[in-house]
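Quick start: what a row looks like.
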Amino acid sequence: MSSAVVPELPWLLPGALTRATPVARRTTRDWLVDGLAFLLALGWVLLAFGDSVGPAPEFALNAGPSWLNEVDLVVGLLTTAALWLRRRWPVALAVASLPLAVFSVTAAVALLIILFTVAVHRPFPVAAALVGAHLLVTPVYNQVRPDPALPFWAAMIWTASFLGGVLAWGMFVRARRQLVTSLRERAHRAEAEQQLRVAQARQLERTRIAREMHDVLAHRISLLSLHAGALEFRPDAPPEEVARAAGVIRASAHAALQDLREVIGVLRAEVGGAEVETPERPQPTLADVPALIGECRAAGVRVSTEDLVVEPATVPAAVGRSAYRIVQEGLTNARKHAPGAVVRVRLAGRPGDGLTVEIRNPWPVGEPPEPAIPGAGTGLVGIAERVTLAGGRLAYGRDLAGDFRLAAWLPWPA
């Protein structure tokens, strides 16, 4: 059934005479449910009327004046036809059909369907009030159309059981739909929050890289200022010193432009209102990877290393920092998800071929023996952003050998 809520009395709303009330279109499922409800109510109309005019009326479902049977047939057919409007005006139909509950037998099923619709689509106080109103007219109905097979109080209990069952069933369906809607909204919200966390992780990684480049740029520019000042205050310096200072200025300017180009690539958005912060300690490089592995070994992690880097002293500082962060993230993930496993770290590369960093550990079997280390799940996102900004490639996941593999290639110019 459609869950759209539409006012039952649109003519009472301001401006309703000048604009139409939007109504949700029925889905295929709605048409099937409405058709089944219509056929069920129509079948009861025909059954009840045929029983009341049969050859043995003393065995009729309900007794009463003979002329009332023809009126009841018309009322039952009209109420059954009104079921097609129950989605739009369930409360209005329940109120309008209340007088029919005084005498109509043929409209009984249609009335129950209308009350069920009210219980599904309207709050509990509204549904309970309408069910209570229909229950209050039950004594009058039993006086007008007494049941020859049941005494008065038995008929009252029977009718109250039907009305209570319809109300309970409708409230159950309503609660279940609200639960499904709530779970769907929570899933959408969790997905949106995860995307936001990923975006924040990327932005934080860009900011972190920009801070790392601060010291390098400051060093280049201060070197430029120093040599330019020397040329300004000593214009009569020997040509050899002028040429040497000019060469240093040219090399420093070229390196500063390269670093500045990396910073501009990181800072894609304009940042305003930045506060002065305490300078961070010097950032790690490739030469600090052995110390990092030593710290992990001291903490109990079994790490095997394979260093095949040719001329490691010539690795650019930015590439070395990225390699350090990749090894750090790989060892952290191994401690979190595969405690006790042997972690293999492999470094290889040469100028012109690039630097390859690979961390591999066996895939964990079963649950970890101790509580898992909590994490936000954005570490690999930040590493991927760092490698992409450096112009490299990153791959991670389970390989054909069944191990978890984190591998990155970083450009290393000749």
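That is the whole record. Residues 286-366+373-410 form a domain with the Heat Shock Protein 90 fold (CATH 3.30.565.10). The radius of gyration is 40 Å.
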